[in-house]
Design a protein that fits this description.
Structural class of chain B: mainly beta
Number of strands of chain B: 11
Number of helices of chain A: 0
Order of helices and strands of chain B: EEEEEEEEEEE
Radius of gyration of chain A: 13 Å
Distance between the termini of chain B: 41 Å
Strand content of chain B: over 45%
Shape of chain A: globular
Radius of gyration of chain B: 14 Å
Largest interface: A-B, 27 and 26 residues
Helix content of chain A: under 10%
Helix content of chain B: under 10%
Number of helices of chain B: 0
Oligomer: heterodimer
Order of helices and strands of chain A: EEEEEEEEEEE
Largest sheet of chain B: 6 strands, mixed
Strand content of chain A: over 45%
């Protein structure tokens, strides 16, 4: 169990640029979640995969956001035409797929929009 | 819509003190209630998970309770240490909405705990 890995840890970019984040879940965890956390707030749910299928997207996820999980392994979250309001910590979590098993979180990617 | 509230927002205690963190939720239709710890600039570490059918869970110096009928959970930390300083988050795992979708974790804003030596 090597834990959930996220890359990069920090990303600074100019407004209007596209960014992509990667999440490697714990192996054999078939559920993968993306959350967004702003300063002083708890994480907010963005989207969820079971294996390679994206089963739900939050209304927080505008058309500029897209997430994929090819082959049900790692996942990517892309933000197009970034805006100031996208500045946040983006957290990834995975779980084995049984309801009463905790989600395991990565250390997140902190995005700063200049 | 589930709403989770944590009180207080911040707490400062001397080392060795026992303390209680509070969490309340508005919708009792949950699978479980989870407590997490978050250190600055880091992700979340799962501390305790209480299933909806359970009343409490214990791990070392930590004890979490759940009262679904009143929509409350508490995290009790015994004999606090400076290393316990962190933000503690509670989250409710909601049952599926009638129209489908995933079981979502809904988080409170957290309690920032400082344990002074």
């Amino acid at each position: 169990d090597t834990g959930v890995s996220q890359d990069p840890r920090h990303k600074i970019t100019k407004r209007g640029q596209n960014v992509t984040f990667r999440c490697d879940p714990i192996s054999e965890h078939n559920r993968l979640y993306w959350y967004r956390q702003t300063l002083g707030q708890g994480p907010e749910f963005l989207t969820y995969f079971q294996n390679e299928a994206q089963l739900e997207k939050s209304r927080l996820l505008s058309d500029r956001f897209s997430a994929e999980r090819p082959k049900g392994s790692f996942s990517t979250l892309e933000i197009q035409r970034t805006e100031q309001g996208d500045s946040a910590m983006y957290l990834c979590a995975s779980s084995p797929g049984r309801i009463n098993q905790p989600q395991h979180f990565g250390d997140g990617t902190r995005l700063s929009i200049l | 819509k589930q709403e989770v509230t944590q009180i207080p927002a911040a707490l400062s205690v001397p080392e060795g003190e026992n303390l209680v963190l509070n969490c309340s939720f508005t919708d009792s239709a949950i699978y479980n209630l989870q407590w997490f710890r978050q250190d600055p600039g880091k992700g979340l570490t799962s501390l305790l998970l209480i299933q909806s059918s359970q009343r409490e869970q214990t791990s070392g110096r930590l004890n979490a309770s759940l009262d679904k009928s009143s929509g409350r959970s508490t995290l009790y930390i015994a004999a606090s240490q400076p290393g316990d300083s962190a933000t503690y988050l509670c989250a409710a795992l909601n049952r599926r909405e009638p129209q489908g979708g995933s079981e979502k974790l809904v988080f409170g804003k957290g309690t920032k705990l400082t344990v002074n030596p």
